[in-house]
Amino acid sequence: MKNRLAIFASGNGSNAENIIRYFLESDTVEVVLVLSNSPKAKVLERARSLNISVATFSKEDFYMSEAILKRLLKEKIDWIILAGFLLKFPEPILQHYKNKVINIHPALLPKFGGKGMYGMHIHKAVVENKESETGITIHYVNENYDEGKIIFQAKTEVLGTDTPEIIAEKIHILEQHHFPKVIENLIINNKNIPSFGGGQGEE
Ligand code: GRF
């Protein structure tokens, strides 16, 4: 029986699509469901075009009912991947899926994490702070924003001339390269050793 993944995403969904494609031929992992709090999110189109089931929900459903947890259980989901998902994850689902909810954050946590730190806000802050490097963090999700145990990090250099848009592109490349492989390793090997690297390392 393959490991069954659900992906939560709020917007564009380039990471979700990349993960879906990566596991299309896999013998061990399959993406079975993409869920979004935003009915207009592009991620839903991307998933549908790859024949993946989609589900949308309101904030109310998410926090006040057990509908989403029930759906995950009904679909026999083993792992939950957050890929650009902007809502805080509810306690009851986290309790049920202990150490099975994984997020990607486009910065080197604990730097540039927490409420309000998402998307271009992060890359602008990186430029304003004159950071010499930034990167991605893949981590377990707990009840606080961006504070769960780190599974993997990869770095990229920030040049003095880099704009937030250029940084976003560098981050995008790191995410596309690493995220599916880190998920695969985590599932197959249950490997959760933190790593710091410019692209190699703990995959
Ligand atoms: C990514 O940068 C991810 O790290 C962050 O949100 C962005 C989502 O991009 N959590 P996309 O929707 O996957 O294109």
Mean pLDDT figure: 93
Helix tally equals: 7
Distance from first to last alpha carbon: 23 Å
CATH homologous superfamily grouping: Formyl transferase, N-terminal domain
How is this structure best described in words?
The structure is a single chain. This protein is α/β, with parallel strands linked by helices. It has a single domain (3-191), classed as Rossmann fold (3-Layer(aba) Sandwich), CATH 3.40.50.170. It is 36% helix and 22% strand. The chain has an 8-stranded mixed beta sheet with strand order 3-2-1-4-5-6-7-8, covered by helices on one side. α1 (14-23) runs parallel beside α7 (164-189) and α6 (119-128) crosses α7 (164-189). The relative contact order is 0.15. Residues 9, 11-16, 83-84, 104-106, 171, 175 line the site of 5-O-phosphono-beta-D-ribofuranosylamine. The site of 5-O-phosphono-beta-D-ribofuranosylamine has 14 residues, from α1, β5 and α7.
Brief descriptors of the model:
203 residues; alpha/beta; Rossmann fold; eight-stranded mixed sheet; 7 helices; globular; binds 5-O-phosphono-beta-D-ribofuranosylamine
